[in-house]
Amino acid sequence: MTIKRLATVLAVLGGLFLLYAGTSFLLAPQATAEGFGLPTWPQGQGEGEAFLQVKGVRDIGFAGVILVLLLAGQRKALGLAMAAMAVVPVGDMLIVLSEGGPAATAYGVHGLAAAVVVVTAGLLLRERSAGA
């Protein structure tokens, strides 16, 4: 598999995963929240669900950026955008850890997501500079 094909597959999977996660947080926020890793969520008067829906919209927005740049053929811009986006799962990981959430979720979900985003960004940027 070429670097370009691998980068494309990872970018598409990342975009589709974010679209799925974002939609899940919009449609079933409390049920989806358990997989995020925080031990507690805001409760009462809809504030907990609203917070989770904000996360859903964020994920759908990131999915849109990934998929639109990929479809537009803007692979270098996609690589740079994904490199910048890597701060989000790193931040999520640090928040889960600082709030006493499970380390396995922090590292296994958010840390792994950050690593995949960084690798995908690196592949996109490497393929471009190599003239692939």
Q: Can you give keywords for this protein?
A:
single chain; 132 residues; mainly alpha; 0% strand
Can you describe this structure?
By secondary structure, the chain is an all-alpha fold. It is 80% helix and 0% strand. Helix 1 packs antiparallel against helix 3, helix 3 runs antiparallel to helix 4 and helix 4 runs antiparallel to helix 6. The two termini are 13 Å apart.
The largest sheet is: none
Tally of domains: 1
Instruction: From the alpha carbons, calculate the radius of gyration and give it in angstroms.
Output: 16 Å
Unreliable stretches, pLDDT < 50, 5 or more residues? none
Give the beta-strand count.
0
Structural class: mainly alpha
Gist of the model:
By secondary structure, the chain is an all-alpha fold. It contains six helices and no strands.
Itemize the secondary structure elements and their pairings:
Elements: H1 3-27, H2 29-33, H3 47-71, H4 75-85, H5 87-98, H6 103-129
Helix pairs in contact: 1-3, 1-6, 3-4, 4-6, 5-6
